[in-house]
Amino acid sequence: MLLHIDSSADTAADSVTRDLTDRFVTEWRTRHPAAEVCRRDLAADPVAPLTAAYPALGRRVERAGLLPPEQVPALLDGPAEAREWALTLPLLTELRSAHTVLLGVPMYNFSVPALLKAWIDRVAFPGAFTDPDTGESLLRDTRVVVVMARGGGYGPGTPRAGHDFQTPYLRAWLTALGVRPAHLALVAAELTRVDVLPALAGLAKAAAASHAAARETVTSLAAR
Q1: Domain limits of the chain?
Q2: Hey, CA dihedral for 11, 12, 13, 16, is it positive or negative?
Q3: Amino acid 47: pLDDT
Q4: How far from 147 is each of 6, 36, 131, 169, 189, CA to CA, in Å?
Q5: CATH topology of domain 2-222
Q6: Of 141, 164, 178, 206, whose CB count within 10 A is highest?
Q7: What is d(CA 20, CA 101) in angstroms, rounded to the nearest whole number?
């Protein structure tokens, strides 16, 4: 199964991350016509922020020894925790079931959108991705492709080279969850606001080249 998640608040046709994730899915479907694609648009269907009941339940699960999801309901204490678990379990099930995960992630204020962070906070439930028999991550064989877009330039030598908290954050979180570095691809299209930001004047060719390279890379990744 391919789990396709878009987190851009911009649902217009010119959304760069949505264009790139759609390109990936189109190519992927040609290679896997019978496979399931699970789509989650976090702008259309936002994930609810955590309440106090979520960490209360999480701590109880940690004390019990990081139980698999099917054993968590036995530890629920009251309707608030039951609600949190009902909001969480479908997201965990999607991620645990996916062979490939595709994330569309625009850069907002040097990091990731709040829409995506709410999903990250909820799926990072204690023990949800730990094999109870081996202690290994259930995501060790999961392939993850992260498609990013940035309004400016953040490459080496640029004035904002040190302001990219998007890439290192996503890499750190995904690998901590158990995704193997060899199974993780991060692709970025930069200078996407070249048409509206005066500070980017004269960089139209570089912007076009970055977007073209991202499209080519995404297509290549989908074909593997």
Answers
A1: 2-222
A2: negative
A3: 98
A4: 9, 20, 28, 14, 8
A5: Rossmann fold (3.40.50)
A6: 164
A7: 14
